[in-house]
Amino acid sequence: MKLKTQKSVSKRYRLTKSGKLMHKTAGQGHFNARESGNVTRAKRSDAPANKSDLKSIKQYIPYK
Question: Listing from the earlier edge strand, what are the strands of the sheet with 46-48?
Answer without folding.
Answer: 13-15, 21-24, 46-48
